[in-house]
Amino acid sequence: MIELSDISKSYRTGSVSVEAIKHIDLTIAKGEIFGIIGHSGAGKSTLLRTVNLLERPTSGSVKVGGVELTKLSSSQLQKERRRIGMIFQHFNLLAMATVRDNIAFPLRLAKLSRAAIQTRVNELLQLVGLEAHADKYPAQLSGGQKQRVGIARALASNPDVLLCDEATSALDPQTTNAILDLLLDINKKLGITILLITHEMHVIRSICDRVAVIDGGEVVEMGDVLDVFLQPQHPTTKDFVSQVADSFDPRELIASSKGRLMKINYVGEITYEPLLFNAVRSTSVQFAILQGTVSRMKNTPYGQLVIEFIGEDQEIRQVIANLRDKGLEAGELA
Ligand SMILES: Nc1ncnc2c1ncn2[C@@H]1O[C@H](COP(=O)(O)OP(=O)(O)OP(=O)(O)O)[C@@H](O)[C@H]1O
Hints:
The chain is an alpha/beta fold. The chain has two domains: 2-243, Rossmann fold (3-Layer(aba) Sandwich), CATH 3.40.50; 250-332, ACT domain (Alpha-Beta Plaits), CATH 3.30.70. It has helices at 44-50, 74-81, 99-109, 114-127, 143-155, 173-190, 201-207, 225-230, 235-243, 275-280, 313-325, and strands at 2-13, 16-28, 33-37, 59-64, 67-68, 84-88, 161-165, 193-198, 210-215, 218-224, 260-267, 286-297, 300-310, 329-332. The strands form three sheets. Strands 6-7-8-3-9-10 form a six-stranded mixed sheet, with helices on both faces. It has a four-stranded antiparallel sheet with strand order 2-1-4-5, with helices on one face. A four-stranded antiparallel sheet has the order 12-13-11-14. Helix 3 (99-109) crosses helix 4 and helix 4 crosses helix 5 (143-155). The longest helix is centred in the middle third of the chain and has 18 residues, at 173-190. The structure holds adenosine-5'-triphosphate. Adenosine-5'-triphosphate is lined by residues 11, 13, 18, 20, 38, 40-46, 199. Residues 2-241 form the ABC transporter domain.
């Protein structure tokens, strides 16, 4: 659905040139929810805005739904942009227009009939749960409600792609979760492809299928959210993963450990099975859980534990082999 090839973008201010993004390749499948995470100034906004050519890349190709956007005339581009909705951190609503009129705005631009606009706006109000607020003005709404208007407006012309520019950054945690649930719901119901940028790992973990980590204008890591989360490689990725992990570093325990410290990861339904107990029950090995998370990433359960095994070396090896046989990943804590 989205194919960015060798995208670079430089900004020139006077005699100084800043390379905001450098040689980025990104392919996003139809129906996917793809997250781009990075610190402030990493190049996230620039990258996102190249997808609808709000920022024209200095070089590279931008294809959406198979159409090369950089080669289009401005009228052709305007038409293609209807297939790409966008929502913003600060909502960008028309302050002097009601919720209904804000949502109707792109439909009026597209010259739909009054009756068609009314029908479509009612559908959208229902989809985002704002039927009761249709005649209010933005100033009368909460942040979460304003973002719902933004989402309804972005979906008005039935786009294939929704771009989300830090869409939950101005919201409190509870409202953030409600908006993320709405995005997930829209993705499931409409099959729309979602590309979002954020600096919060929580957002990635809650709704994304894949993630790219961007640092200094380059993609430094990319993959399925589960893999990146459980086995982060780049220091920037580790930094983001630690946002949602326990702040206590279990490596502090290595010096005082009596036994063998292992890091164990598991994914899927085995998360709920008594695997540790079963692995040690026929041995004299004992274990202590020193740190642990059992949670869900989107819809997939996973566990991540730091375990100290105490006992005979050979028996511990047998226990670890048994756990690996059951599909758990077990590695020495280092
Ligand atoms: N219009 C512009 N003119 C000059 N430099 C710019 C412009 N827009 C962005 N930059 C620079 O490009 C780099 C990337 O900026 P960008 O806004 O894409 O980062 P970001 O990751 O979205 O950051 P934030 O999370 O703070 O919005 C920064 O060094 C920024 O200063």
